């Protein structure tokens, strides 16, 4: 059919270009209806169409005189016309071997005359044609053919305009969505900051209640704030969603990381803790470390700490087991005074993390164990 | 839950930040109140409300299982005074739902919360 130079586009490109206009199957629009009416009037034909060639059919954005919205591709004359360089005029379809067997030519409504101007994108990809048809053989005057070509260009201008408006609307929607997300994030940030301040305030109260002197209060309190800040740093790396357990433990035990003799062992698979779990677990590890430095295995050069963790599937939910065991420290005695550390381990962890906690003051070293469900939900998607 | 001393006014605490909740509990107990909870979810609080009625309540606006409005509605129905202690600003949708609700934005000095509870007592007596 197209025995000219091979086109520079593929059928896939062509369909992509067509679908870019988002025109197929849209309701009639006066701008396009007006253009086909003008074409029919100028060419003095009973039928005029804006035909767009889709994958398996030709679909009419506007039509007069035919009374159809689409036809199968074997009924399409525009499929041929759109591949011609200029306006294709066929004075009698029944005399033309290419179209004589077209169902609309050989059968009802027995079309005889066709003239069509291709609809091409600015890149030259054909989408269909603006055409006029008649039930008797005839031809077009030079003026009529020229106007048909100009009207086809007008159809393309309308299509372009429509696309630009649609793209602008999409961008507006996008920026509205971004704005909404921003508002949400600001509100969430406000909430989190206020909650963090309330947590710090609670820490002041709890530390105050368990400190003997201002000096003790000051040091314990600022150490706790620093520990909290370290966990927040790890969380910030992931949009404030999750932090690796290993990193949380490492950040607490950092001062002991570069000693000649290893002072701690971390044994466990990679596990990310959601913020709701990371913060209390970080605080718990801080209290355990502080306690070990003061009274336990890290108070003497030969002592060390073993931290083990694993995850298990319990009834389809992931469960974390975290163990802390001290070795080689001074003999352990059950404390007489329950400080903030034990409040945190025995009251905060069960409440905040739904954890089952066990603290054993074994004489050869403190043992702590917690079992808690892992929280999998994220509020903000990962990168 | 700890058994409550009935001679003391009973404050229900609904708060999912354990440290905040426990500190609030300590402050209230120091001030002569008994505490129901602290509860960390609305469903546990509602379950407890199925068995008892507190003198008053302190509620966080948003818990892990959603807005506290169910609990607030139940308390309103029983004419139990309550206040919202929340990190949200005072333009939260809950406010539209519950008029005349006392809204204290986090963080607030413990004394402010204790004082609010005292006002509830005065209003009740």
Describe this structure in words.
The complex is a heterodimer of chains A (383) and B (125). With 383 residues, chain A is α+β, with helices and mostly antiparallel strands. Chain A folds into two domains: 11-172, Beta-Lactamase, CATH 3.30.450.40; 213-373, Histidine kinase-like ATPase, C-terminal domain (Heat Shock Protein 90). Chain A contains nine helices and 13 strands. In chain A, strands 3-2-1-6-5-4 form a six-stranded antiparallel beta sheet. In chain A, helix 6 runs antiparallel to helix 7 (245-253), helix 6 (214-236) packs antiparallel against helix 8 (275-294) and helix 8 (275-294) packs antiparallel against helix 9 (340-353). The longest helix of chain A is centred in the middle third of the chain and has 68 residues, at 142-209. Chain B has 125 residues and is of the alpha/beta class. Chain B has one domain (10-124): Rossmann fold (3-Layer(aba) Sandwich). In chain B, the strands form two sheets. A five-stranded parallel beta sheet of chain B has the order 2-1-3-6-7, with helices on both faces. Chain B starts with 9 loop residues before the first strand and ends with a helix. Chain A binds chain B through residues 187, 190-195, 197-203, 205-206, 209, 276, 280, 343-344, 347-349, 351-352, and chain B through 16-24, 26-27, 38, 40, 62, 64, 86-89, 105-107, 110. Chain B: It holds the Pfam family Response_reg. Chain B: Residues 10-121 form the Response regulatory domain.
């Amino acid at each position: 059919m197209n025995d000219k130079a091979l086109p520079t586009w593929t059928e896939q490109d062509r369909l992509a270009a067509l679908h870019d206009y988002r025109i197929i199957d849209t309701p009639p629009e006066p701008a396009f209806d007006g253009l086909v009416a003008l074409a029919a009037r100028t060419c003095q034909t009973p039928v005029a169409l804006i035909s767009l060639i889709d994958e398996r059919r030709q679909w009419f954005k506007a039509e007069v005189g035919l009374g159809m919205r689409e036809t199968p591709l074997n009924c399409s004359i525009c499929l041929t016309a759109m591949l011609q360089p200029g306006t294709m005029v066929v004075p009698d379809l029944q005399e033309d071997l290419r179209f004589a067997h077209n169902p609309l030519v050989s059968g009802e409504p027995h079309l005889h005359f066709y003239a069509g101007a291709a609809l091409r994108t600015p890149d030259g990809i054909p989408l269909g044609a603006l055409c006029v048809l008649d039930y008797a053989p005839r031809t077009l005057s030079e003026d009529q053919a020229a106007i048909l070509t100009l009207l086809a260009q007008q159809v393309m201008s309308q299509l372009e305009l429509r696309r630009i408006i649609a793209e602008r609307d999409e961008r507006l929607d996008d920026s509205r969505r971004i704005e909404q997300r921003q508002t949400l994030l600001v509100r969430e940030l406000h909430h989190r900051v206020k909650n963090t301040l309330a947590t710090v305030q609670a820490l002041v109260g709890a530390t105050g209640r368990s400190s003997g002197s201002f000096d003790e209060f000051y040091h314990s309190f600022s150490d706790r704030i620093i520990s909290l800040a370290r966990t927040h740093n790890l969380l910030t790396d992931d949009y404030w969603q999750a932090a690796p357990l290993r990193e949380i433990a490492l950040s607490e035990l950092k001062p002991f990381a570069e000693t000649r003799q290893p002072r701690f062992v971390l044994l466990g698979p990679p596990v990310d803790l959601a913020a709701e779990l990371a913060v209390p677990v970080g605080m718990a590890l801080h209290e355990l470390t502080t306690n070990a430095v003061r009274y336990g295995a890290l108070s003497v050069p030969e002592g060390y700490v073993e931290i083990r963790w694993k995850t298990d599937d319990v009834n389809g939910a992931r469960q974390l087991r975290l163990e802390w065991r001290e070795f080689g420290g001074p003999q352990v005695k059950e404390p007489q005074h329950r400080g903030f550390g034990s409040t945190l381990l025995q009251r905060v962890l069960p409440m905040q993390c739904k954890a089952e906690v066990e603290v054993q003051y074994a004489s050869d070293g403190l043992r702590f164990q917690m079992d808690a469900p892992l929280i999998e939900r994220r509020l903000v998607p990962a990168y | 839950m700890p058994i409550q001393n009935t001679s003391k006014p009973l404050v229900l605490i609904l708060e999912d930040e354990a440290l905040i909740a426990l500190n609030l509990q300590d402050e209230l107990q120091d001030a002569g109140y008994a505490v129901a909870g602290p509860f960390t979810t609305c469903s546990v609080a509602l379950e407890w409300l199925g068995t008892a009625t507190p003198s008053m309540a302190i509620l966080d606006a948003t818990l892990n299982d959603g807005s506290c409005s169910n609990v607030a509605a139940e308390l309103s129905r029983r004419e139990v005074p309550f206040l919202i202690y929340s990190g949200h600003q005072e333009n939260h949708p809950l406010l539209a739902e519950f008029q005349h609700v006392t809204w204290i934005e986090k963080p607030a000095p413990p004394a402010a919360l204790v004082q609010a509870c005292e006002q509830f007592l005065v209003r009740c007596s």
